[in-house]
Each structure stands twice: as C-alpha cells, then as structure tokens.
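Below is how a single chain appears once it has passed through the pipeline. First comes the sequence as given, then the structure the pipeline wrote out for it. We keep one example in the README because the format questions we get most often are answered faster by looking than by reading.
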Amino acid sequence: MKYFILLSFLFLNSLVYAQDCTKEALAKLPGDWKKGMAGSISNVSPSDLVQERAVLNNIHKLISDNYKPSGCQVSYSFVFGKNPKEGKNWIADPYYYQMYILRYLCDKNSTDKSKYYTDVSTPTTCQISANCIYDLKSLLAAELPDNQLRGYLELERRPLFKDGYYYMGEEVAGDPFSKNKIMAYSWLVTYNDSLPFYYVSRKEYLELIKKRLEKTIAEQIAYADYYKEFKDRITEYLNKPAAYLSQTAVCMGSDEERFKGFVPEGTAGSFIAIKPNPTYYRKNLPVSVPQFFHIRIKIAQGDPVFEKNIEDIKKAIDFAKLKTLLGKK
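Resulting structure:
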C-alpha cells in the first residue's frame, strides 16, 4: 500500500512538472526585456548620434512603460547610419528601433520538465524606423541616386489614411502556402497628413523607361529589332493627351521597359510607381531629427504568445505621441 502511495505521489508530481512546461503555462509566465547586441553605426556624426539615440530611447520608454512582455523575452536594439550610395542630397538620417519576440520554450534536454529556455530566433518582430521605409527597397530622406536601377520605387497599393495616420497595408512575409503564415503590417506617421513620396505620373514613368530602353538597345544592338516594338509603343503613349499622361503610373511588374500599357490600380502583379518627395521635408532641421516614422510589425500566426504580445505592443505604440516627436530637435 505504501509502495502504491509513493508511486501515485511520484506520478502526480511528474504531472505538475510536466504541466509547468506546457505552451499554455509558459505563455502565462511574466516576460522580460533584454537589451540586445548593439546595432550597426555608419556615416553618422557623433553629435547626430547622440540626438538619434535619444529619439530611440524615447520610443523604447514609450513602449516599455505601457507594455509588459508575457511568455517571452523581448530583445531590443538600435541601428543607425546610412549608405551614401543609396541616395543623394540627403535631408535626414535613417535609423530605427527593433524588437524581437523570443518565446519561452520547454527544455527538451532537461529531465526536469519545469525547466524552460528562451528562443534564440524569431519571425515575430516590431520595427519603428525614422526617415526610412526599408520594405519599400529603402525609401529614404534623400533623392534616388543617378545609378538607381529603375529611377522609381514600386508601391503595391496606396496607403489608406485613417484616424490621422496612413495604413500601408499587409503582406505575406514568408511562405504564402504555410498553414500559419508570417504576416507583415505597416503604418506611416507623417507631417500634416502628407506623404514623404509622390506618385509618378504616366508621362514621367514613360520618359524614365524610354531612357532605360534606349540604353539597353545601345548595349544590345543585335536585339534592336526586338526592342523596337516596345520603343514605338512608349513613343505612342507619350503622344497621348496631357490629361491622360498626368495620371498616376500603374504598371505590371513583368513589363517595365517591355512596356505593354498601363493597368487599373489593384491589378494582380501591378505596382504604383513612386519617388521620394523632397518638398515633404523641413529643410532647416538637423539630419538627426525624425521627419516621419514607419512602423512595421511582423508576426507568425497561430502562436498564442506571439499573438498576445503583438496585440499588447500595438496598444502600447502611441501614434499621437510619435507624431509629437516629428520635427523636434
């Protein structure tokens, strides 16, 4: 009888330990913050770095004062600097604050099933960038360089203005066929409900691709006859009425210099041509000053820890307070 009681105790005790390491139990553990490895610093003056670091520290305080991690460790880091080759006539420095949601996981190598460890990588992140939109192939507070591949950037959809901010939309950031997709969502916080880029007109777009096509023909003279069809079509379109040519260029990603014509906005596989808008910025400010913020949240769906923490982070990001930082030295 004593032997049976002892076995029962050991069995129940092992269940308690095992239950401590379930996903549900781990998700309820208080989380913590950890300062991650220092991010890169390049082409930033010491005085500007001090000011930019202060901005990111303010952002970290804004979030950490209003959000407590649960079931995870939040590793955060700062990144500063620019590649001068990516732009010309720079107006403001790009820099950003990055958060990584690292779940608590069961320690499969331990006989003690109450033990857990912190994940070492994650698909679930939050990035708040000043003066740059990295997922637009680096839309920066600078004009496009002369050697930029296209002479414009590609925007999948127009931002939706709502409640004083721009929602940039959502996209699948990982395998589109995965059961639990990795989704990305982004927003813009800007001056005066305006945008740091402008929509390229059909005329400007045609002139850009004509110039690029002429360069291609000169480099591949043997294929001149093949390219003639597209060059003639570009010329035909450039002769259309001014009202038509002044409209925004919406194009197929598979066309470009092999131009077949413009398409309706929202067509699958299409993009809206845009360029940085220098007139958006206040030119008398130091390059360290934030002149717009881009918020990008990426989350792997189907995990309760990721979903709860991202939802809490969204609540903690006060867009109105971020807006008050714009243009401030």
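Confidence is low (pLDDT under 50) at residues 1-19.

See the next section for the split statistics.
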